Amino acid sequence: MNEIKTININNVTLKTVGEKKFLDYAMYVIKGRAFPDIRDGLKPVHRRILFAQDQLSNYYNRPYKKSARIVGDVIGKYHPHGDVAVYDSLVRMAQPFSMRAILVDGQGNFGSIDGDSAAAMRYTEQRQSKFANSMFTDLGQETVNMIDNYDNTEKMPEVLPVRFPNLLINGSEGIAVGMAASIPTHNPVEALNCVKYLIEKELSNEESVLEELIKIMPAPDFSTGGLIHSLANYADAWTEGRAKFKIRSKWHEEETTSGRTKIIVTEIPFQVKKQLVIEKISNLASPNKDKGGLVEVEGISDIKDESDKDGMRIAITLKKDVDAEILFNTLVKYTQLEVPFSYNMTVLVDGSPEVVGILKVLSSFVSYREEIITNRTIYYKNKALIRAKMLEGLDKALSKLDEVIELIKTASTPTD
């Protein structure tokens, strides 16, 4: 007779299962995709792209490799997601108008500040930048944990042993389930000077330390430039991780040969597309009322994009007797020549999302570097002890050299 198998059935409600699965999904997005780690400032996809480059010796001083080669390695070994998502992340790391210090040195069309898309990955080439290459200097000395990849066939670093506060220098943005991150970029020299100050100064009086650090790094610093203002609550970004400010385009006046005044815009806010700004100003100068263009800004006779390899240059020619400053302030009101920006420094701290201030980011980086140096020192110490043990054996062999030679001669096999 066939044995009757007992089947255990657990009665659960759809609500209970739905809540659990949704929370599991939310935590996966939070920990595995959306937020950077406070230590190296990288999301998993960026870390895996750089590690794949390192494994292929795709260094800054070596020949470029096809982007498709790197993307293939990333999705095949470390990041089981779509190739489009991986390539888009790689492209962003190569854009000087997106990163304060690019981590990928790209060759080919990697998009533009006008909003043009990058060429397909089979056409572009890339390699690590010098900044990215420095992230792997201490990797081979057991400084960080190496974890299994998604199918347990490869090892990859849990976090990179970075030598600079990448989280502050390159910033980060991410949207998860029920929370988001918006971390602006900062000047690399200023960020490193803050680290140097923290190392040299004992953290005994937080207020005085904070005042000095704000003097060293008084505001964010974006790759596209722009003027930062409305920083009244900037200190909150240092302590609480939340603050608001505004980025305004940088401009100056020029006079044409005919005596007309020109507004020359040389820098625009971060993540603003230049071509869209030009189109918006053009529409304001001559609105199409049939298409709903109800706002008209008088005083503009012409607008041209004169940007070239030397930099950005948007030339707005004014009509006679028009005040340039008044007109520019009017354009600011209706265009993205000025945009608001908010600190929302949500990062992963010990694997959990947490809103932290700049001060904690810096102190965490210093502690992380101490941990890396300690692990590196222990690695070299253990290596030296093994070498010392070998040398002790060789020293003993030399003291009885004739006996050792005779032993070798009479041995029946190399193993003996």
Topology:
Blueprint (H helix, E strand, L loop, with lengths): L13 H21 L9 H12 L9 E2 H12 L4 H11 L10 E4 L17 E4 L1 H5 L11 E3 L6 E3 L8 H5 L1 E4 L4 E4 L4 H13 L5 H11 L10 E3 L4 H6 L2 E7 L1 E6 L5 E7 L6 H12 L14 E6 L8 E5 L5 H11 L3 E7 L1 E4 L2 E4 L2 H42 L1 H10 L6
Antiparallel strand pairs: 1-3, 2-3, 4-5, 6-7, 8-9, 9-14, 10-11, 11-13, 12-13, 15-16
Helix pairs in contact: 2-3, 3-4, 7-12
List key phrases describing it:
41% helix, 4-stranded antiparallel beta sheet, 416 residues, alpha+beta, globular, single chain, 3-stranded antiparallel beta sheet
Identify low-pLDDT runs. none
Question: What's the number of helices?
Answer: 13
Q: Per the principal axes of the C-alpha atoms, what is the gross shape?
A: globular
Largest sheet: 4 strands, antiparallel
Radius of gyration: 29 Å
